[in-house]
Amino acid sequence: MSHMGDVLAGFHAAWEFESDSVLIRYERGIRTPKLFQALGERRVPLDAIAGVTLTPGKRGTVVLRVVPRAGADPLIEAAAGQLKEACDPYRLVLSAERETLAEYYADELRARLSGDDEPAERFLVDAPEAPRAFKAYDAKASFDGKTVHFRWFWTGASSTKWKAGDQSFPVTELSGVEWRSPEVFEGHLRLLLRDAGTQPAQADQDPAAVVFGLGYGPVHESLPFAAAVLAAVRDRGPVAAVSAGAPRRDPADIAERIRHLGELHQAGLVTDEEFSVKKAELLAEL
Hints:
The strands form four sheets. A four-stranded antiparallel beta sheet has the order 1-2-3-4. The protein has a four-stranded antiparallel beta sheet with strand order 8-9-10-11. The longest helix has 17 residues, at 219-235. The protein is an alpha+beta fold. The protein has helices spanning 34-39, 74-79, 99-112, 159-164, 219-235, 251-266, 272-284; strands spanning 6-9, 13-17, 21-26, 41-45, 49-56, 61-68, 91-95, 132-135, 139-143, 147-152, 167-170, 174-180, 188-193, 209-211. The chain has three domains: 6-112, PH-domain like, CATH 2.30.29; 132-235, PH-domain like (Roll), CATH 2.30.29; 251-284.
């Protein structure tokens, strides 16, 4: 990194080291995670980096990773720890033969960091640009940079949502977003409203939420969407929350959700582990 513009290429991405930032360019191709392809490239200011690690990887590889500061990246804030390791945009996987070179760049990066690992007061990494759109199970979600729109599908929307009609939410009316990965049970994207009181616990009953499902709301579409909305919200008000404490559910509702979960388990759509974990989560809400 002694020369601005040095490039370190790994699997699925190349990092270009500049005087005040790291420019990450993601490859396009069948083997590249779809989230990386959707991001294209990202510039990460050194002020947004809390640390650097270099660790052994799988099958003869090493992994160079920059650790983002809390609150610095809207994508990471929206993901809230739900991204799988292979989809971590801050990991650069290299052949073990390049470990010495990777160690050199890791040391160079560490030397340039300010040492500030306190949460950032504002986003330092740019959010994915609007407009954004994706198909959830019960709606088409779109965002033009100022307003989020949900257009319900009659084949998937609950009667509550259908009766409420299509929804539009200016970012000025939002306090944040809640993204639950489509790769887990009950995945959804929920808009957190500033003045709505308590929102329904179930996403399929909340007109401010869309639910995911098999093939709907994939990570590479719904997460950049959530990050773009979150960044727009923060630009217009106080620090946005990214999670909402769900109110306690009615026991009858819990029993119905467990029954439905059991049906998915018997059908082989939910693993034993997923069944046990989710059942415990539901029982804990009693």
